[in-house]
């Protein structure tokens, strides 16, 4: 049996401002109406001998990850919550440990949740080929036949051909992201493939290999699983144990050192969409080689990527540029310099700018909210509550709230009383009064919330009851 392991814990900072820490690349739609995570899971449809996937993600994105699976009717064997980021080796170690506990030593198919693969049939055929080598004890990685000299990817040098099977090689060595001259040589030689970051191996095999080369990772990951807890649809790893696991990639800790590495060269229409230049390359280009999304007016613009999320973007006389507009930020960059976007995000974090972490629309397990206006003593938000969802029973020490229903139906608890509000009806929640908002209907509840008070920080909340298992210091507001 094959257990898909979907790595969905990244932050995708190179695609800021589209991708942010609390709404990263794998959860947004970049090429079609589905998210990257959903596309990763959907391309497995029709394959035989597949177990329900195991998905790893971070604590903050757990409910959105679960919602994305639910929306495409995919059941997971587990959604594993990583309390801190520790790279791919610990994530895979945890997955293998859980797989051995719950199944009979399955073959793990490890897939990042944020890649594009346009040739699904070839991908599935490649996985079938990899399965046989993984069952035989090999540590399989999928090398992508280079289509160009790319400096943004790592490379793998082919070793000797294995068992006369075309396209299957021992791994001679891994190569870090090269300079342009070396990348041109690698692509022209035919001796190298791009490193895709996709793997196949038996759970017992990869645990043995990690233990041989990085025993601390296995030791602390075992403790993190042993002390972990089931939490609704999630498995929560123990923080104290998991944060002690060294943070390393499976490439560096295992694949570069093992003698059992196998590479299958493939051409499956792969791209990791690691930059806006990659989005330009994979997008639908017009006659001037522009990729245009949203409300854009372009005059004398060539070889550019322009994405407008909310308003008109007008551009004149540009060649090779990236312009990305969101509600709270605009990025303008030369297309050949978009690799520096990650550095911009680091500056935003250093300056404690919220734009580094979240969009103006903030997602919660019950729905989402968006700040419409704010000043020193008031703040206006628009709340959207999913059908059947409800917020925690809570109170605030420093602010009062006024709720007005825009559409749908709201069931409200205010102190000892309850009420049902419909469109255009409103209520007032005084400071210090316990309250709760619920959507008992079958359509989303849209509501305007006006906050007023001396302090409007998101951490002014005391929770008394919460169906999502959150504490006062988790997912601060509402």
Keywords:
alpha/beta; five-stranded mixed beta barrel; 30 strands; globular
Layout of strands and helices, then pairs:
Blueprint: E1 2-7, H1 36-42, E2 54-58, H2 62-71, E3 78-82, H3 88-102, E4 107-112, E5 116-117, H4 120-135, E6 139-144, E7 155-161, E8 168-175, H5 180-189, E9 192-202, H6 203-213, H7 215-226, E10 229-231, E11 234-236, H8 239-242, H9 250-255, E12 261-266, E13 270-271, H10 276-282, E14 291-293, E15 296-299, E16 305-308, E17 313-316, E18 321-325, E19 330-334, H11 341-350, E20 361-364, E21 367-374, E22 378-385, E23 393-395, E24 399-407, E25 410-414, E26 417-421, E27 426-429, E28 435-438, E29 445-453, E30 462-465
Parallel strand pairs: 1-2, 1-4, 2-3, 3-11, 6-12, 14-16, 15-17, 16-18
Antiparallel strand pairs: 4-9, 5-13, 6-9, 7-8, 7-9, 8-12, 10-11, 18-19, 20-21, 21-22, 22-29, 23-30, 24-27, 24-29, 25-26, 25-28
Helix pairs in contact: 3-6, 3-7, 6-7
Q: Can you list the strand order of the major beta sheet?
A: 20-21-22-29-24-27
Which value, in Å, is the CA radius of gyration? 24 Å
Arithmetic mean pLDDT: 92
Question: How far apart lie the N and C ends?
Answer: 42 Å
Count all strands and give the number: 30
Helix content: 10-25%
Return residue spans where pLDDT drops below 50 for at least 5 consecutive residues. Answer: none
The tally of helices reads: 11
Shape: globular
% residues in beta strands = 25-35%
Class inferred from helices and paired strands: alpha/beta
Largest beta-sheet details: 6 strands, antiparallel
